[in-house]
Design goal:
By secondary structure, this protein is an all-alpha fold. It has helices spanning 2-6, 11-25, 31-54, 57-62, 67-91, 98-109, 115-123, 128-153, 156-159, 166-182, 184-193, 195-219, 222-225, 228-255, 260-270, 275-285, 291-328.
Amino acid sequence: MQRFTDLLPDGFTLAIVATVAIASVLPCYGEGAVVFQWLTTLAIAIMFFMQGARLSRDAVIAGLAQWRLHGVILVSTFVVFPILGFGFRALFPHLVSPPMLIGLLYICLLPSTVQSSIAFTSIAHGNVPAAICAATFSTLIGVVLTPILASLLLRTHGGGGDFSAIGSIFLELLLPFVLGQVLRPWIAGWAARNRNILKYTDRGSILLVVYTAFSAAVMRGIWHQLPLSGFAEIIISNAILLALVLLITTFGSRAMGFAKPEEIAIVFCGSKKSAATGVPMANVLFGASTVGLIVLPLIIFHQMQLMVCAVLAKRYARAHDAAEARNAAPSPAE
């Protein structure tokens, strides 16, 4: 029963699904779409500003000693994932539609998550300080690296293949993030005291992005373009991608001689992709006509990684508790 509970969607994922359903029935259009687009841009800037304000530089500095572990996680996030994604495109170029394929490749270019990676590492009794540092590094690097890779490899903003999106990325994503870091000494305490409120404002920003993106997609006939078989193709593709990365991070960390706590940090930080960063960033990187289809694989992958990693974390925790029980048990000679 507990395993079944672990597989249930979390409240935020249900909210995303509900937002997609609302956008499908009541999409914004015309002047309303313009207003929502401006609100979305503002919400994205505020969210990245607060991310910059909340990321502790102390955690980054304290984790520098774990450079080998961080290197493995960064390689998994920004090298192994893209190799698997582009290998998938080379082997199965016509398995999914072009926007969906771009969505799958876009997943591979995103940074790791912060909150869920740390939470699962903690549940599994892994190296939490290393997970904090690794997830922070991934977010910091991803804010800069992901848009550049997407512009180079995915031909974003209508397929122009140039750097025309970099200005928008800087103004809407990177500049607010840097300002948040600069102002952190003055606002970090306030952000810490109001973390629960900010959690809901962050999630509200993402829901606003999802609503605006899917409203535009619905007005362009997304549900006519994507049959039920398309959902099956996305789920299967995501499942294969996630399974391969989990296998690589698990057995790769063991082959490199990492202890169990470090293995846990590598598995959970190196196999995740951030919807909190990816959905707003996609709204900047891609055209309105395709962004809805492109973020759909990410939304599905996000829920899939949460369900699978919840089960893995509980398995790691049970193994840890069993090992501690064996160590605490008296020997037969006693």
